[in-house]
Amino acid sequence: MAEKRRAPDDHVEDLTERHEPKNFKKVRFQLPRHHEGLPEKDSPATDTDDELFERTLRTMHVKERVHDILAAMYYDMHILSWRRNELMQNRIRPWPDLSFYRVQHQEAAWLIDRTMRRAMLAKVGQTSSEDLTYLSKQEAHRVGQFFRRLNLRVFAICAVSEAFRLALCKEDQLVWAVLVNKIAENWASIGTFARSRGLDWQGLLLKYADKDDSLLQQALAPVSDLAEEHPHHRVITNGPAPRKHSHRKPQYEGHLQINIDHNLFNPSYFKDKKDPTIRVPDRDGRCDLCYAERECDCWISHPTLATCLVELVDYPSRGIGVRALTRFKKGEILDQYLGELRPVDYQDDHAYALLHEPKMVEGSPLALISAKRYGNWTRFLNHSCKPSATFLKMTVGKKITMAVQAVRDIDIFEEITIDYGKGYWKNRVCLCGEPDCHSQGATKEETEA
């Protein structure tokens, strides 16, 4: 894996002298490290402590509420895309799945209809403050706010989500304004998510395809079909709207890194021709799901929620990383670390290789999981000396597995990180900047090797 670097501390410019007001209070400014210890500066008093505290609580509440809405929006898009794909393959139950899909799609269509009708009336000068095109003046005002920051394509994608439609009608103005800004910041993520899952948002606009409207034609312009490949075959670069965002395919040593949903075992790689992940009761202990002492039928469901609600993102100077698109709780099993099973002495993967160890025996690895060519999203987890996830040896059903578990709560849009271990940094330099960084204890000769 590429070395992980952290951007240097942001420089906060020291303020020049200014005339002292009559009323002032002491405030310590954030200073660069080489200026620490300078005397406190004087700043005009603006809010009382109680007002500042209330404002802070209000800001925290709004942020939490917006993150809840965004997490629900991604989940809505995921579940509707999944049900549409199942419907197209005739694998969906007629009721209630089909009815739920129809209701959600119809409500989205009504919102688009109201928006397009008002836009067409505005072109001929027939709208006014008393216009009844929308259900309320609030809806008209908020849709206008949205279009001042974003375009019709993003609006159609968001309209499919019930969480977005409810926020449009029921949330207060501050929450709505922050939500629109957050959507604008993450428009590339939302657009790529919808396209890579096959979300049917263009169908909401096709009935107006004959209208002479540049914004509509731009929204209906042909785009590449990302749903033909696995979503984790795309790495996105998020940028401010309405600029173009880019994708690229993850590659290593000139080869595409292909997503798989189970470990690949080739008997010819092992002398005994046996799969080293097969469960041995005396060695691997009880099943971690049902606690059975012998083989059982337990298994970790796939795809997991994390598989569906994470994305690969290019992080400057750190390479590909993984970003959460929902909230994960401490202790949650995110997924399994997957790849090609190789003998322990395999030496051709120094970036993604992970030792596969039994749960009950320390220091006796059974195999090596090489994920440089074949693997899943867990191989792209960047390192941190203060990680949000960890590797966990588990016995599940008939096999043993290396799982990834959250060690603390993870927020939406937060990067998911893991500790590679001190052995990985023996001849590498970790620049994560955490207080207990592995490289702090390394010698000069080790870091320069």
Automatic annotation (TrEMBL):
GO terms for biological process: methylation. Keywords: Chromosome, Methyltransferase, Nucleus, S-adenosyl-L-methionine, Transferase. Residues 308-421 form the SET domain. It is found in: Chromosome; Nucleus. This is SET domain-containing protein. Its main location: nucleus. The lineage of its organism: Eukaryota, Fungi, Dikarya, Ascomycota, Pezizomycotina. Residues 1-48 are annotated as: Disordered. The keyword Methyltransferase applies. PANTHER family: SET DOMAIN PROTEINS. The keyword Methyltransferase applies. InterPro entries: SET2_Histone-Lys_MeTrsfase (IPR050777), SET_dom (IPR001214), SET_dom_sf (IPR046341). Residues 1-23, 33-44 have a biased composition (Basic and acidic residues). Gene3D superfamilies: SET domain (2.170.270.10). Coiled coil: none annotated. GO terms for cellular component: chromosome; nucleus. Pfam families: SET. One of its GO terms (molecular function) is methyltransferase activity.
